[in-house]
Amino acid sequence: xxxxxxxxxxxxxxxxxxxxxxxxxxxxxxxxxxxxxxxxxxxxxxxxxxxxxxxxxxxxxxxxxxxxxxxxxxxxxxxxxxxxxxxxxxxxxxxxxxxxxxxxxxxxxxxxxxxxxxxxxxxxxxxxxxxxxxxxxxxxxxxxxxxxxxxxxxxxxxxxxxxxxxxxxxxxxxxxxxxxxxxxxxxxxxxxxxxxxxxxxxxxxxxxxxxxxxxxxxxxxxxxxxxxxxxxxxxxxxxxxxxxxxxxxxxxxxxxxxxxxxxxxxxxxxxxxxxxxxxxxxxxxxxxxxxxxxxxxxxxxxxxxxxx
Amino acid sequence: xxxxxxxxxxxxxxxxxxxxxxxxxxxxxxxxxxxxxxxxxxxxxxxxxxxxxxxxxxxxxxxxxxxxxxxxxxxxxxxxxxxxxxxxxxxxxxxxxxxxxxxxxxxxxxxxxxxxxxxxxxxxxxxxxxxxxxxxxxxxxxxxxxxxxxxxxxxxxxxxxxxxxxxxxxxxxxxxxxxxxxxxxxxxxxxxxxxxxxxxxxxxxxxxxxxxxxxxxxxxxxxxxxxxxxxxxxxxxxxxxxxxxxxxxxxxxxxxxxxxxxxxxxxxxxxxxxxxxxxxxxxxxxxxxxxxxxxxxxxxxxxxxxx
Lengths: 308, 307
Description:
Chain A is mainly α. Chain A is 72% helix and 0% strand. The relative contact order of chain A is 0.14. Chain B is an all-alpha fold. Helices cover 76% and strands 0% of the residues of chain B. In chain B, helix 7 packs across helix 9, helix 8 packs antiparallel against helix 9 and helix 11 packs across helix 12. Chains A and B meet through helix 6, helix 7, helix 11, helix 12 and helix 13 of A and helix 1, helix 5, helix 6, helix 10 and helix 11 of B.
């Protein structure tokens, strides 16, 4: 999608073409470009993702290398961000830990997105009794203290989850299952008002099936709020993962995430404050840029803040 | 209003029933029991122990027994802390957590609302920008980063407070500040957004045109509508305060509910986990209900949208 929006942007600077009409997306992109803070955040985010994905290749240490002569050593020329208590290079651990934190944020958001958008769109489109029942179910799920169940689930299933990846899958599924609720409410509200519009009537008179109308015609029209809300969901999921890891229930060693690293740092902050500082810096910078980018997108796509 | 209350009460009852049932079967579905982590006991003794605790009965019978006791207000005995009733264990821990949560809530509202309202009243001024930047930094400094930082600075470097423990009232300061400031940042942003929306409406312009002084426009006319989003955030906020307290209790070594919850889950102390989850669930469900009622009292239009 990025490629196409870029194309339209370069066109939109050509003033003669402006009047020929602009798509919502090129318009939004132009507005976003004007928002300096959002663009800085976008760049920062891209930079952090780049570091986490490709960084470990360029660092001459591996995350499992232990240098027993340099345990908990402060930042130096060889170890830019110092080492941890086992003499592992902290910088490379932050990068590889970041991969997990970012992956959890991204994948769980996609899970929430798919469930929430489909559920909300179907509920809003069908309307009537089905809609009422489906939304009451959401109401009830909303009232459940899910976080407690997720914590319970991770503890209780601990012996079965002998491999780190199984635990990660559970994390994705559990967090995604919690976060789809708000998304479904947003989409439902939008779809319920869109379905009375003429283009839906036209599609129906052409004999399109309901599922085709929902997925081809209605959902593309609610992408604005969905994108904004997704951008804001990623940081809240990353935070949740970090909380779980911090209390020892999330990602397990030898794998690490920013939450795990922050927890290790907090344990050693008196003697080696850098162990807390650097992971916290990366984590906070990521949350910061995602939140501001989400705000910028909200303004650019002109999405009302109301949730209904 | 009565119909709404009846509907919400029924919903709350359903939710509580689901919470109790799911918790009951979830913890028992997991491998291992309360006695499996102790020093190797012979299978014979294990059987005897489980028989005593009623763990050898069919699962459904255990469930009906548990539910029967629950209706009488009895949460049964803990498996791990022998001879102690779950009600007593929770009775010791809950006041600590509630104490922490309430102070944090007062800080969150007391700092968050004025900050948000002032920012909205002086929109796009340097006051607004600096308040909102600080709030954003607050949101991006989660409790498990802020907590250790505060402890490092005020307790270890300056020696003002104890770094951990929960003995006298000075020990309340750092934990509740950590928990409260984080939500204060959230509330400030929500309050600002809500106030801005109201301040742009016609009736505010009318009030100003009539010559109502700005401070009165703000307090008498705008506040009521502008703080609605804050009130609807209170529901999720209570749940979040509870999760937040897991972290805070770990950082500052506070003997509250959060510690019990995690320990009990690790120990497979079935009755204690169920008890803690039931207490949490009831708290969250009824606080949510209270928030909804307050919301309708302030803004009767809500009744139709939440029906």
